[in-house]
Specification:
By secondary structure, the chain is α+β, with helices and mostly antiparallel strands. It is 71% helix and 8% strand. The strands form 3 sheets. It has a 5-stranded mixed β-sheet with strand order 4-6-7-9-8, with helices on one face. The chain has a two-stranded antiparallel sheet with strand order 1-2. The longest helix has 75 residues.
Length: 740
């Protein structure tokens, strides 16, 4: 009986202890939530009080995992308050506790990699605010080396954002695509893809590749809509509005910003995203109103711009978001300044923004905006002392932040001011400072442009490699099928020795099958060779080098023209790479772009003419990039070897002869024999495969459509039998589009 009573006593004590633990855990979660909400609202003393309660309860609970989270929470609060030493101390203590957490405390919502990722992320934020770049990069690399799982997404995504802010765009894209590939491989993590794709879109936006960013955002939006992720849809709408605004399409920008606001107005102030653990995010309604206000301002609709700036201000006040309050006040002040009616109201708004802006979030950027706005007001009021005071403060703040575009604006205003004062020495000084900053901007744009080309080239190279790999796999599959067919035939022959009639039938069938497979194999082999020769890498490298030289020589108009033709040609070639035939119109368009690029490279050293005598409405098909190798020979082995005083011209004429298309390429070059001599005299000889590949592609065309083709090359001679050029005749049977 005593044994039973003792057992009941211990059981009751155990259940009581479990109940107490359960109460403590609920209290910890409750105080955690209160601390986070207080911090978001800027009530840090309340937040610290709740965080202390969490810490004391964790000590009583003796749970290392929850103790770790409580130290991390206090570190974040001190960091937000700008108390960096206290924050660093708590983060380090939390990081040391990771190794003390026992295996049973780990689960899907709390793993070692997840805990370390969060700690590293907090430390990076801390070093970022202190501009300690070296320490920041160390912890970025630590996050990057963590396993790619659901728990590390937020930290890895933050690293992408950070490298973007540091203008390490290539590194940001590299990490971003690694993370994206990781989550693409796991269908269960589909809900995580929109976040990293949004970050990649922002990187491309910073590079000036707004069209690429829009492509990423379209994909993000489709995924977000398929999984019904309202917050990701909202952010996609917002970023699409910003991208269309950046390319000057204010009408579309306005549409996307309105859509983002429609969703935001239906959502609560705080949104819980259920990932590995629940993440609290703020719905940025106030910021969305600011975006809409700015778009209306760009469209010169000042009344609507002021209306939404005021709405942004009201929402920010209601939600206690004082960083947004200050931002909205500055936006409103700038709109009042543009109206030019009530400068005192604008000054009052700026003074209020200065007083209310939190000192722990982007304070220097707020100061800079306020100084620039006040300088503009006092310029209108012609108050010399105040103008100099605020523009000098703006200059110092912009230099501290390294914000080049605002430095340019500040120096421009100071230059204008001193010109009005007829102080030309000072005006010249600020003009020189402005030019120096503009040169920095140009250098950055040049670097971004070159980096953009590198990224595009790498992307297209990878695409071509994938296409070639796919073709190789198809060929291997055909080889395997062919081998199996041969084995089947051999077995059938052995069996056929017993059954004579079956033998004859089997042999006939297998011979037919073998011939068909060999025929298909030959087609695949020729397709692979044609694909490899579709793009000449030497040509593209030369074009890129010429384009880079043009950019560096500060010829933006020529560079833009060069870039436009080059990208258009690349896009045409890539679109045609998986087609064995294209329309004659597309072929001539691509050929014209190619010749114009060669003209630009050679400084317009030759002329050309394309004469199409065919009916423009008739859609005739030809092998893709068929004429380019002949034209390339005509340029580099023909006309470019002629003396300067001789006219250098290439004429391409297309006409119909019965049921064939006849393409004639004539040049005023040195002829085939002289071209061969010049080639042999050169120290570095380049083995051109263009004509050989074209023969293979003509053979492929004949095999596919069972129709003959012919071409001939001959020198053009005058009455004295002197060579005056070369002529290529190419005859292709007519194939209409509906027969392809």
């Amino acid at each position: 009986m005593k044994t039973i009573l003792l057992f009941i006593f211990f059981l009751a004590s155990y259940v009581s202890a479990l109940g107490q633990d359960s109460v403590w855990i609920k209290s910890i979660d409750h105080y955690n939530m209160l601390a986070q909400k207080s911090a978001i609202s800027g009530k840090f003393q309340d937040a610290l009080m709740y965080a202390d309660s969490v810490y004391q309860l964790c000590l009583k609970l003796k749970n290392p995992r929850r103790l770790l989270a409580s130290k991390s929470l206090k570190g974040k609060l001190y960091q937000a308050m700008g108390k960096n030493e206290e924050a660093y101390s708590f983060f380090q203590e939390a990081l040391e506790l990771v190794d003390d957490v026992s295996e049973e405390d780990f689960d899907e919502s709390f793993s070692p990699s997840n805990a370390k990722a969060n700690m590293y992320k907090d430390l990076i934020k801390l070093f970022h605010r202190q501009q300690n770049i070296d320490s920041m990069v160390v912890y970025c690399n630590k996050i990057n080396h963590l396993p790619c799982n659901e728990g590390t997404l937020w930290a890895k995504d933050y690293v992408v954002t950070l490298f973007r802010e540091q203008r390490e765009f290539k590194k940001a894209l590299e990490i971003g695509h690694e993370v994206l590939n990781c989550y693409h491989a796991d269908l269960e993590n589909k809900h995580l893809i929109p976040k990293i794709m949004l970050s990649l879109a922002q990187v491309y936006s910073e590079l000036g590749e707004h069209e690429v960013a829009i492509v990423y955002l379209d994909s993000t939006l489709k995924i977000a809509e398929s999984i019904k992720d309202s917050f990701a849809i909202l952010l996609s709408y917002e970023q699409l509005g910003l991208e269309f605004g950046a390319i000057g399409n204010d009408k579309k920008a306005l549409n996307w910003h309105k859509k983002s606001i429609e969703i935001a107005e239906k959502l609560p102030e705080y949104l819980s995203l259920h990932r590995v653990s629940t993440v609290q995010v703020i719905v940025p309604l106030s910021a969305l109103y600011v975006n809409l206000s700015q778009t209306y301002k760009n469209m010169n609709n000042i009344d609507s711009a002021k209306y939404y700036a005021q709405k942004s201000l009201t929402v920010a006040y209601q939600r206690g978001r004082y960083d947004n309050v200050s931002n909205s006040l500055i936006s409103l002040a700038n709109l009042i300044i543009d109206e030019g009616n009530d400068y005192q109201a604008a000054l009052d708004s700026l003074d209020k923004a200065y007083r209310i802006a939190p000192r722990y979030r982007d304070w220097l950027f707020r100061q800079l905006d306020i100084y620039l706005a006040k300088g503009k007001i006092y310029t209108q009021k012609n108050n010399r002392d105040s103008i100099l005071y605020y523009y000098n403060k703006a200059e110092k703040t912009a230099l501290k932040l390294g914000v080049v575009d605002r430095l340019v604006a500040t120096y421009q205003r100071l230059e204008d001011f001193y010109l009005q004062q007829e102080n030309y020495a000072k005006a010249y000084t600020y003009q020189a400072l402005k030019v120096a900053q503009e040169n920095k901007m140009k250098d950055r744009m040049t670097q971004n442009s070159i980096l953009g080309f590198e990224i595009k080239y790498d992307s297209e190279k990878l695409k071509l490699a994938n296409l070639e790999l796919a073709k190789n796999q198809e060929i291997q599959a055909k080889e395997i099928a062919f081998t199996k067919a041969l084995n089947t035939r051999n077995k059938s022959i052995i069996i056929g020795l017993v059954f004579l009639i079956l033998l004859l039938g089997s042999i006939a069938w297998l011979l037919y099958r073998q011939k068909r497979i060999q025929h298909q194999f030959r087609i695949m082999e020729l397709e692979q060779k044609a694909l490899k020769a579709q793009i000449n890498p030497h040509f593209f490298f030369n074009v890129l080098n010429s384009l880079q030289a043009t950019i560096l020589s500060e010829k933006p108009t020529v560079a833009y023209k060069y870039h436009a033709k080059f990208t258009k040609l690349m896009r045409l070639i890539l679109m045609q790479s998986n087609k064995d035939s294209i329309s004659l119109k597309e072929e001539l368009e691509a050929l014209k772009l190619y010749i114009e690029l060669e003209q630009l490279r050679t400084g317009n050293a030759f002329d050309f003419e394309i004469i199409n005598e065919l009916d423009s409405n008739e859609e005739l098909m030809v092998p893709s990039m068929l004429l380019q190798p002949f034209v390339e020979n005509a340029i580099w082995h023909g006309v470019m070897n002629r003396r300067k005083e001789v006219q250098k011209k290439i004429t391409i004429r297309v006409h119909k002869n019965n049921n064939s298309i006849v393409c004639q390429i004539e040049d005023t070059g040195v002829g085939r024999e002289r071209a061969q001599q010049i080639k042999q005299q050169k120290t570095k000889q380049h083995e051109s495969m263009g004509i050989e590949v074209t023969k293979n592609r003509l053979e492929l065309f004949q095999l596919r459509y069972n129709t003959p083709l012919r071409f001939s090359i001959q020198d053009i001679k005058n009455a004295q039998q002197e060579v005056e050029g070369t002529k290529v005749d190419l005859e292709i049977p007519i194939i209409n589009k509906h027969n392809v």
